[in-house]
Amino acid sequence: MAGESTWYRELVLCILTANSSFFSAFYALQNLGELIFTGTEDQISEALKRSGYRFPNLKAKYIVRSRSYYGRLKNEIGKVAEKDQFEARERIMEIDGIGMKEASHFLRNVGYLDLAIIDRHVLKFFSVFFSEMKMSSKRDYLEIEAIIKAIAASFGTKPGILDVYLWYLKTGKIAK
């Protein structure tokens, strides 16, 4: 199983993915390298700018603040997730720059598959079946997630697996 540094890299990827494309965030993370662990806010911001990344100053601030979770993610969040992935998601959402979608994304990337990652690709896919799908609140997210969970269960799979498949259908690419 992955170690704490991998879990932290996944957290930073999710911070970078919020309000940005996955591929832009992944490219930026690769360019940041070890700066996520040791760089100053200014160094991280400059590296993000060189990567062509959106919101470099804000995301640099979030990355530096998130370091207080490094060393505790796998032990604390992992233990909670083993018992209750919904509670683990709530705890991850306490981190600056992480909302419901990215907290679910983080958990999926570290191996917990019971939550749905609801993004524009998923909403667009389901808009064919449900004309009034909008997501403007936590309640909306949970309602849509319940639908996705039911659909996943009908296929004998988990929401995290269905999400990857829907992403592939809409983008033609496999990504984490």
UniProtKB/TrEMBL annotation:
Pfam families assigned: Ogg-HhH
Keyword terms: DNA damage, DNA repair, Glycosidase, Hydrolase, Lyase, Multifunctional enzyme
Enzyme Commission number, as recorded: 3.2.2.-, 4.2.99.18
Domain HhH-GPD: 16-171
InterPro entries in the record: DNA_glyclase/AP_lyase_Ogg (IPR012092), DNA_glycosylase (IPR011257), HhH-GPD_domain (IPR003265), HhH_base_excis_C (IPR023170)
Catalytic residues (UniProt): 101, 119
UniProt site positions, description: Important for guanine/8-oxoguanine distinction: 176
GO MF annotations, alphabetized: class I DNA-(apurinic or apyrimidinic site) endonuclease activity; hydrolase activity, hydrolyzing N-glycosyl compounds
Listed CDD domains: ENDO3c
Reaction(s) catalysed by this chain's protein: 2'-deoxyribonucleotide-(2'-deoxyribose 5'-phosphate)-2'-deoxyribonucleotide-DNA = a 3'-end 2'-deoxyribonucleotide-(2,3-dehydro-2,3-deoxyribose 5'-phosphate)-DNA + a 5'-end 5'-phospho-2'-deoxyribonucleoside-DNA + H(+)
Swiss-Prot/TrEMBL GO biological process terms: base-excision repair
Xref: Gene3D superfamilies: Helix-hairpin-Helix base-excision DNA repair enzymes (C-terminal) (1.10.1670.10), Hypothetical protein, domain 2 (1.10.340.30)
Recorded family membership: Belongs to the type-2 OGG1 family.
Entry protein name: 8-oxoguanine DNA glycosylase/AP lyase
Gene: ogg
